[in-house]
Design a protein that fits this description.
Blueprint: E1 2-5, E2 9-12, E3 17-23, E4 29-34, E5 37-38, E6 46-49, E7 58-66, E8 69-81, E9 85-88, E10 93-96, E11 101-104, E12 106-108, E13 112-117, E14 120-121, E15 128-129, E16 135-138, H1 143-146, E17 148-155, E18 164-166, E19 170-175
Parallel strand pairs: 2-8, 10-19
Antiparallel strand pairs: 1-3, 3-6, 4-5, 4-7, 7-8, 9-12, 11-16, 13-14, 13-17, 15-16, 17-18, 17-19
């Protein structure tokens, strides 16, 4: 009789997992299987899968042998989530005061997106939108508010939610329009004089 076994679970790639079964009665041996096929040399009450990859995602079962027959404990499903990976990085941008700046990046295996400015998380509001998507929009840019470095941080899905990846930083330069602060007043001089 099987008294306990590992429940189905999902792990992040490169993690380890140990599947175990506990059986009552006289047990003479075990044979672990993956998708119904025997796993070579896995003949104990536990099976350890190390450095998980998507190739390890499958349904596992174990045959438990005894003098009174064989019992199979199945239905142990192992899922493997992939870590997030940055695919494209945002590009530097130069805008004039009052214009709109947009940064875009892309990634695979994403649970959530989060844009950061100068290392601090951004949130939507004011002139910021798209802070939790792969495209950040900054409207009506100003020098003191918005100039800085921006990067996209992505957090993995499910079992990889503790794993993040961050893009290269892109710089937003905000230029100010030309304004004349002073100029020479209209004047009249006599010929042969100088004027500056």
């Amino acid at each position: 009789t099987v008294t306990s076994s590992t429940l189905s679970t999902t792990k992040c790639e490169s993690e380890n997992i140990t599947l175990e079964v506990v059986a009552a009665g006289t047990v003479t041996g075990y044979q672990w299987k993956k998708a119904g096929n025997n796993i070579t040399s896995q003949v104990s009450a536990s099976l350890t899968l190390s450095n998980l990859t998507t190739a390890d995602a499958a349904e596992y079962s174990v045959d438990i042998f005894g003098p009174c027959g064989t019992v199979t404990q199945g239905g142990i499903n192992v899922g493997v989530n992939l870590k997030p990976v940055i695919v494209t990085n945002p590009s530097n941008s130069a805008k004039c005061v009052g214009e709109t700046a947009t940064f875009t990046a892309s990634a695979n295996n994403v649970g959530t997106f989060k844009w950061v400015k100068d290392g601090s998380d951004l949130v939507d509001g004011g002139n910021i939108s798209g802070s939790s998507t792969n495209t950040l929009t900054i409207s009506n840019v100003c020098v003191t508010c918005d100039a800085g470095t921006y990067a996209l941080k992505v957090i993995g899905p499910g079992a990889c939610s503790a794993v993040s990846a961050t893009s290269n930083s892109a710089t937003l330069t905000v230029n100010t329009p030309i304004t004349v602060t002073s100029s020479t007043l209209s004047t009249t001089k006599c010929e042969s004089e100088n004027i500056t």
